[in-house]
Every structure is written in C-alpha cells, then in structure tokens.
Amino acid sequence: MALKCQQCDKTATYHITELTGGKPQELHLCEDHARHYLTAAEDEPEAPSSLAGALAEQLSVSQTAEELARLDQLSCPVCGITFYDFHSKGRLGCPHDYVCFAEELEPLIVNIHGDTQHVGKVPKHSAEGSERQTKLIQLRREIKEAVSEENYERAGKLKDEIHRHEKGEAS
Amino acid sequence: MELNDLAPLCGEWLRGSGPESDIVISSRIRLARNLAEFPFISRASPQEREQIESLLHEQIIEIKQDSEELMYLNVDDLEGLDRQFLVERQLISREHADSEGARGVAIDSGEQMSLMINEEDHLRIQVMHSGLDLENVWQQINHIDDLIEQRVTFAYSKDLGYLTACPTNVGTGLRVSVMLHLPALVITRQLDKVFRSLQKISLAVRGLYGEGSQAMGDFYQISNQITLGRSEEELVAQVGDVVPKLIDYERHARDFLLKESHENLHDRVSRAFGILSTARTISSEETMMLLSSVRMGVNLGMIDDLQIPVLNQLFIHTQPAHLQKLSGHVLDTADRNIERAKYLRRHLLGGKDGEAEQN
Ligand SMILES: [Zn+2]
Ligand SMILES: [Zn+2]
Fold this sequence. Notes:
The complex is a heterodimer. Chain A is mostly helical. Chain A folds into three domains: about 1-45, no CATH class; about 50-120, no CATH class; about 125-165. Helix content of chain A is about 55%, strand content about 5%. Chain A is built from eight helices and two strands. Chain A starts with 13 loop residues before the first strand and ends in a 5-residue tail after the last helix. In chain B, strands 2-3-4-5-1-8-10-9 form an eight-stranded antiparallel sheet. A two-stranded antiparallel ribbon of chain B has the order 6-7. Chain B contains 14 helices and ten strands. The two termini of chain B are about 30 Å apart. Residues about 210-215 and about 355-359 of chain B have low confidence and may be disordered. Chain B is globular. Chain B has two domains: about 5-180, Creatine Kinase, Chain A, domain 2; about 260-359. Helices cover about 45% and strands about 15% of the residues of chain B. At the A-B interface, strand 1, helix 1, helix 2, helix 6 and helix 7 of A face helix 4, helix 5, strand 6, strand 7 and strand 8 of B. One zinc ion binds near residues 76 and 79 of chain A. One zinc ion (ZN) binds near residues 5, 7, 10, 30 and 33 of chain A.
C-alpha cells in the first residue's frame, strides 16, 4: 500500500517523524515536498507550527470572541500592521510592535521562552536613537500613502521631515 | 571567486574533519538581526527592501575573512538551479531561495560564513564548522556581529534584546545547531529514548526517516528552542553539553553491534557499498540511506580505501542541483537517477569503471 503525499497526489516516499514539541508527529511526503519541508524547516526547527500553536492556545484560553475581535483590530501606528495580520502570518511588522502589542505579546513570549528579560549581548554602539529610527519607519510609510493619494503637498513636507531624521536631527 | 567555482568543492560542513567528526557532521550558529530604521520584511515595500539590501550589502562586503573579500550573490538574479545549489550547500535557506524581491547572500571562500540579506529578518549571520566546534563558531560569529554592528544600528530593546520578525527568535536571535550521524542508535532502536530526554530540556530534534520508518540518512539535528532569558554562552553550552552524551550513546551502540552482531553489521555495510558501486539508476533517498551505512562502516574500519571526506562529498554531490551543476546539464528525475548512479560508480570504484564511461 502506497501512501500519498500529504501535499500533492504523488506517492509519499519520505516519512518524517517530527520530534519537536509534545508528541512525535508523522509526515508523509513525496520527494519534492520532503526536500522543501526539510530544507525550509531546518533552520527553524520550531518556528511556524509551534508559534501558531502557542498563539492559538493562548488566544483561545484567555479571550472571549469580542475580545478576540478587538485584539485583531489593534494596529501599530508605525508600520500599520494589525494584530490580526500578525496572528494569521506569525510575523511582526516592525520593531515598535514589541512596544505597541506588548501586552498581547507577553503571554506568547512567556509561553515560548519561559522568560521576558533579555540577559545576552548588548550592542556596544547602542540604539539610543531608536525613537528617531521608529519615526523614520512611520514617516516613510506615510509618504508612500501621501503619494498614492496624490497628496503631493503633504508628501513634500514628509520628505523634508524624513531628510531631517535621516541626518539625525530631532524634529 | 564565482558561484560555479564552488560546485566541485564540498563545503565546510562536509569537510569531514574537526573534533568527533565520525559522529558530529557540523556545528552551526546563526544570529537574526534587523536594522532599527526599517520595518521588518513583511511590512517593507519593494523600495524599502532594495534600500535594506543595498545598505547591508555595502556594509557587510567590508567584513573580510582573513583579509579576503566575500563573494556577494544577488539571489533574486540567480537561476533556480543555482539557488537550489546554495540550499543544498546550506549557504542559504529554502525560504531565501524561494522568496521574491531584493535579497542577497555574502559567502567566504571557505564556506564557513554566510550572511543572508532580507531573509525572514534583514540580516541572518551564519557560521558553520565541520565537526564539534561550537566554542570557536561562537567566537567567530560574535566577532562578525561586532564588526557589522559598528556600521549599522540594529533593532534592540533593553528588555527584549534583539528584536526579530518572529517572537520565537527575540532576545539573542541565536540558534545553535549540531548535526549528528547516529546510525547505530537507529539500528538498536534507542533513539526515541534518547530524544525524549532532550525535549525535557527544551532542545529541538529533527530527524529524517525513509520508507517504512527505515532510517534515512540517519542524520539528526539538535538545536536550542529558547532564545530569550539566557545569555548566548549559556545557550551554546546547553546544546554543547548534550552532544558528548549523544556521541557516547552512539559509540556504545556501535560497540554493542560490533560485539553482538558483527556479521550482520558487516553484511549491511558491504551490501550498501555493493549497491552504491554497481547500480545503474538510483534515487537520492536510497543513496542517502546506503551512504549512511557505508559511512558507519568506514568509521568502524570495515571498508578500506575510502576516506570520510570522499564519502561526505558523495552525500552532497549526489543532491539534485549538485548533480546537474557538475554534469553541466539540466536533468529530470529519471536522468538524475542515472547520472547519480554513474557518479557513484566513478567515485566508489576509484575510476576503474567510471573513467571509460565518462568519455
Ligand atoms: Zn508532494
Ligand atoms: Zn509596527
């Protein structure tokens, strides 16, 4: 009896036992999908599935439906990502998300790492100007929006402001 | 140095030397970093990706390894075959090969380091050594990170450390991976027991099996899951501390097999060698499985005249993209299986069979 690949109609010739996480999980894949799975996942043994799992778990136990709807609508003022985008794709939009979604992310971070405080390397030339950098991310997004709305007056002002920030002058 | 110059080589991680290299294939560390003044990749516009790429490209190309220039490849411009080649070589991730937009990779000629731009994070620094060599890998990658950090500002917070696109990497952004060859633990069915104990200390294990849960390649990778709340040195030590135990288990299992079923083991090794050196068409799955047995046989002195580095080279050169680059033709699966068998015969029979055929 030949098993079919879980991702297409070909015969599954690779049977992978995923030992990460709770109990071993069996995967049956054809050569192409197995290669894809193994090479993609190699660098991130835990990332997609366990993150999604941790997120789902955390959200389902701690939130009511209304709360979930409210959560999903939260958005970052800097990059514009909504919590829903993060929730569905598993990737954040900018460094500021760790600030503006801090409350929502904390249980997830505890779930993954069992900790909330970095104790490792500190950059020697530290990011004291991180507010300036965050502002730049926001201004660049706003100028893009201004241009797409053909609001060239606003775009011009934003351009000057970006220029000032890039040169390191506080506004 | 150009990409095509790499094809006939076999890369650092399969060099087959370094401490414990009969069992430990490679030691690898990667760091995830992002520039503070750009959104993460998922929210970056195509123009912003280009800006990130050119900014980082300009800065990292200055990071010389032993005063030698790095080779920089614009991944978006590469042919699919070349991208797959780099994936097989473990110099870029599958995600990096398959994604779109401005992105690149810088590689040193020894293939110990690779710097990926615009992967999941703006910058992924990877250093890999053959054998068990985590301390030196950490020293080297820490130094590279210092050099780059003098030139750019990374997204960092006092509380959460290095900020990454995925919260699973936040903090140190560090992933330590050791790849092990554990055929005797597979044969003696002791792997599950060993790995269950690893999960209790939050290390991830990845295994690859072939048909009918017959071990395929018998290669396993151990890595840390946690990146926040512990220092880089602690995380490196956490993985580094369990590896000698695994090596010990594997050596015991090999001793046991040598004592208790020497003929069976020798038979398995000899048959594997027999098929590899005579087959006319062979899949990469079967090749991996048989090479695994032969590799153990060489390490146990059951096969003479075959060196581990040669064997390691066969593991990599029989991968689909490598086969095609080495033969100079694009080949479908059936033709690859024929080409693979030809390549194996040529190298395992020391040219006796292969040379004549090559012409
Ligand atoms: Zn498939
Ligand atoms: Zn944001």
